[in-house]
Design brief:
Layout: E1 2-5, H1 12-23, E2 28-30, E3 37-41, H2 45-55, E4 64-66, H3 70-76, E5 77-78, H4 82-91, E6 96-102, H5 108-111, E7 116-120, H6 125-134, E8 138-139, H7 154-161, E9 167-170, E10 181-186, E11 189-194, H8 200-207, E12 211-212, E13 242-246, H9 250-260, E14 265-269, E15 282-284, H10 289-304, E16 310-314, H11 321-332, E17 337-339
Parallel strand pairs: 1-9, 2-9, 4-7, 6-10, 11-12, 13-16, 13-17, 14-15, 14-16
Antiparallel strand pairs: 2-3, 3-8, 4-8, 5-6, 6-7, 10-11
Helix pairs in contact: 10-11
The protein binds threonylcarbamoyladenylate and magnesium ion (MG).
Length: about 350
């Protein structure tokens, strides 16, 4: 495995190696503005299979196809509506994935047998340059073993997937830290299947309407039919048990947290609460929801190595980017949530 450091500039010789590796059915780890992806030639069944194997990904969970321009996007899909066109114009490139009818060139290995395909145009120079130089779309899920927190820093990913890929491309810590907003237009209404940095408000401002899938902040029961296969699977989980504290009243919240803290319990919360929490095991998510989103997955991986028996996590208000953060934290905690 090679590690290419492109934090400052994209090395052209190394870029050539990456493109050749993709042509030869290899898989690579590359940065996007959301999280790192583990990617391959989207038209190559053999390479796609390697990604499912490397991640231990359930075979019914489709991959996102990453493109670098509109004409590449249009080759992958068919029957696009005016609402979908509007969403593409407004949010691509960006932290946004749209589910569309797939064209014939997208293999069923990528879509896990579905006739729809998830398309994303990342807004990250390294991702753009790789796809553009390769000249074909790259299929890529998040760079982590299935069920684990997503990879947002190259050191974390090296540990977990390093021996399974041709190269790890280091573009620094990812800017957003949570995966893209996944949207499907159903009966002319954009429905958010997975919340991300493109918020419901952003979408409403563009097309006038938006809905959130009911599973975003709730558990999926065993036999329920879901719009997105990923909703059913275990996600973002450290080995250590986690509990989410979702209490609105600040004083009550701090009281509850302090009553639960012990030597073998870690607390993950906002910097502003550091002085109010009676524990040496305080781990800061930062000052803002943006900071918390950027840091959370790497922080959880770090704490997971420290042999605590429990991790208590402070929740945020489910609005704007906070919806995306809460969607991840609820799953991190396997739906163990303490409410008011
Ligand atoms: O930010 C991101 O989206 C990152 C970066 C690497 O682009 N990728 C990512 O991929 O998060 P992944 O595989 O971890 O999540 C893709 C999600 C899954 O929940 C999957 O079920 C859903 O998108 N998905 C993919 N294709 C779909 C389809 N045709 N219909 C419904 N959901 C789909
Ligand atoms: Mg993922």
């Amino acid at each position: 495995m090679k590690i290419y450091d492109w934090k400052q500039t994209i090395n052209k010789d190394e870029l050539n190696n990456v493109v050749n590796a993709l042509y030869n059915s290899n898989i690579i780890v590359f940065p996007t503005e959301t999280v790192y992806g583990i990617g391959c030639d989207a038209f190559n069944d053999e390479a796609v299979k390697k990604i499912f194997e490397a991640k231990g990904r359930p075979s019914d969970n489709p991959l996102i196809v990453h493109v670098s321009n509109i004409s590449m996007l249009k080759r992958c899909i068919k029957n696009i509506s005016s609402i979908e066109e509007k969403l593409i114009d407004s949010f691509m490139p960006g932290p946004f994935t749209l589910i569309l009818q797939k064209s014939e060139i997208i293999p069923h290995s990528v879509t896990a047998g579905l006739d729809t395909v998830a398309i994303r145009m990342p807004n990250n120079n390294i991702a753009k340059e790789i796809i553009e130089s390769f000249g074909k779309p790259i299929a890529a899920p998040s760079a982590n073993i299935s069920g684990r927190p997503s990879g947002t820093r190259i050191a974390d990913i090296k540990e977990e997937l390093g021996d399974k890929v041709y190269a790890l491309i280091d573009g620094g810590n990812t800017k957003i830290g949570l995966e893209s907003t996944v949207v499907k237009v159903i009966n002319n209404i954009p429905v958010i299947l997975r919340p991300g940095a493109v918020t419901p408000e952003d979408i409403k401002n563009v097309v006038g309407r938006v809905e959130l899938d009911k599973h975003i902040l709730a558990e999926v029961s065993t036999n329920e039919v879901v719009e997105s296969p990923g909703m059913k699977h275990k996600h973002y989980s450290p080995e250590t048990k986690c509990i989410l504290i979702n209490i609105e009243n600040e004083r009550k919240k701090i009281e509850k947290i302090n009553s639960m803290l012990k030597d073998n319990v870690a607390f993950v919360g906002f910097e502003k609460n550091r002085k109010k929490i009676n524990s040496n095991n305080f781990y800061s998510m930062g000052e803002t929801v943006e900071d918390a989103s950027q840091n959370i997955f790497s922080l959880l991986r770090k704490i997971d190595k420290l042999d605590y028996d429990l991790i208590i996590i402070e929740g945020v208000k489910a609005q704007g980017l906070g919806i995306a953060l809460m969607n991840r934290l609820i799953r991190t905690c396997a739906y163990n949530v303490i409410e008011n």
